[in-house]
From TrEMBL:
A GO molecular-function descriptor: protein tyrosine phosphatase activity
Family (UniProt): Belongs to the low molecular weight phosphotyrosine protein phosphatase family.
Residue intervals of the Phosphotyrosine protein phosphatase I domain: 240-389
Name of this chain's protein: protein-tyrosine-phosphatase
Species of the source: Rubinisphaera brasiliensis (strain ATCC 49424 / DSM 5305 / JCM 21570 / IAM 15109 / NBRC 103401 / IFAM 1448) (Planctomyces brasiliensis)
Length: 394
């Protein structure tokens, strides 16, 4: 029986469409919606081993079983914070990559032994004796794929659903001339014939792209499939991000940023300019900073003595993206830390004072070169354990 079609136009009313979709998902039906990945299939997932089967009987059809090798299945995350709901001790690398890449452009593949839910879904699925079994393109059941969804309908649907969602899209290399993404509702229904009950039809989707797929083992990253994000860009986003914070971002935090680059590069045996290719992201900002101010002349002069160029520094205020991307936020004083924690208590575990034994590093602004030298010494003393910590990461 053909799937029920509901037309959707940009700017149109979505509430009724989504309500019907939620009702069908709740009943265990497979539905189709438009997204950045083309038309995708969506099914209800389960969170607890005690939950009953959500009605995957539609997926047990012969048509769906035969389509399985042509599909990828993934858990759709509402936010990177859900990684902790889905996985026990998820690798930091997974959160970094999903945070730093636009939703829908990257899927991460994690080891299934970390997975919390009853059925460890991977890239595709098949039934054996009526039970849904995890299955990937290589026949392995050892991995789970997840991603953040993009698109108006997908986000509204996730908001309305009280349970996690499984999504599926046609597998295939995005660079191939025969791009296998489902650009029309017909193409998705043909692929999932006899098991899809409902499709929201937005016409032909031209601006679609398959996500890159990155496999994460421990903290290591391998590219399984390339997508619209270049492989090199993915690798640059895999490593830790360190943010130094002071008041005006013209004295202490710029010096800390520059010294951290120098010391870390020396430890790794590379040039500071090569840190990004190894996945390290180091930046600085100020709680009361404005955009575009240079580093103080004393800071520039002091670091120049060791060949560190600081004359090209431009101040920036602290921002939500900087905070959320950072794995480690190092403040110059306890007051700086408290100000951030007051507004973002969820980040408290990532924020600490740079000074040795959590001592404040006083602001040298207005002081002479001796004051700046003492400031630099305090920064270097605080950086020593940080460099040790960063280079011990696998």
């Amino acid at each position: 029986m053909p799937a029920v079609r509901r037309k959707f136009e940009n700017g149109g009313e979505v509430q009724d469409l989504i309500l019907e979709a939620v009702q069908r998902l709740s009943a265990g039906e497979l539905i189709g919606i438009p997204s950045q990945l083309g038309y995708i299939g969506v099914a209800k997932g389960v969170r607890s081993p005690d939950e009953s089967e959500p009605g995957w009987t539609a997926l047990a059809s012969e048509a769906c079983q035969s389509a399985a090798p042509q599909l990828r299945w993934a858990w759709a995350l509402r936010s990177t914070g859900e990684l902790n709901d889905f996985f026990a001790a998820p690798p930091d690398t997974a959160r970094r990559l999903l945070t730093r890449c636009k939703p829908g452009t990257l899927a991460v593949q994690l080891e299934a032994d970390r997975f919390r839910f009853r059925t460890p879904f991977a890239e595709a699925h098949r039934f054996t004796d009526g039970q849904l079994q995890s299955w990937s393109g290589s026949g392995s059941t050892s991995h789970v794929l997840c991603l953040l969804l993009a698109g108006e309908l997908a986000k509204v649907l996730q908001t309305m659903c009280p349970w996690p969602l499984l999504v599926t899209w046609p597998a295939g290399e995005p660079q191939a001339e025969d791009n296998s993404l489902a650009k029309t509702a017909d193409s998705l229904e043909n692929l999932l014939s006899d098991c899809m009950n409902y499709i929201i039809d937005a016409g032909t989707l031209d601006d679609t792209c398959a996500p890159a797929i990155a496999e994460i083992q421990g903290q290591g990253v391998g590219i399984i499939q390339s997508g619209q994000i270049e492989d090199a860009a993915i690798m640059e986003r895999r490593g830790p991000s360190i943010l130094f914070v002071c008041t005006g971002n013209t004295c202490r935090s710029p010096m800390a940023e520059a010294l951290c680059r120098k010391l870390l590069a020396e430890r790794l045996g590379c040039n500071p300019d090569e840190l990004a290719t190894q996945g390290y992201r180091i930046s600085s900002a100020g709680l009361a900073a404005e955009f575009g101010y240079p580093a103080s002349p004393e800071a520039v002069q002091l670091l120049a003595e060791d060949g560190i160029e600081l004359s090209d520094h431009h101040s920036q205020p602290i921002s939500v993206p900087l905070l959320e991307e950072a794995d480690l936020i190092l403040t110059m004083t306890a007051q700086h830390r408290q100000m951030i924690v007051t507004h973002r208590p969820d980040l408290a575990a990532r924020i600490r004072v740079l000074g040795p034994n959590d001592r404040d590093i006083p602001d040298p602004i207005g002081g002479g070169m001796d004051v700046y030298r003492r400031c630099r010494e305090a920064i270097e003393a605080g950086l020593a354990p940080v460099i040790e910590e960063l280079t011990k990461q696998p």
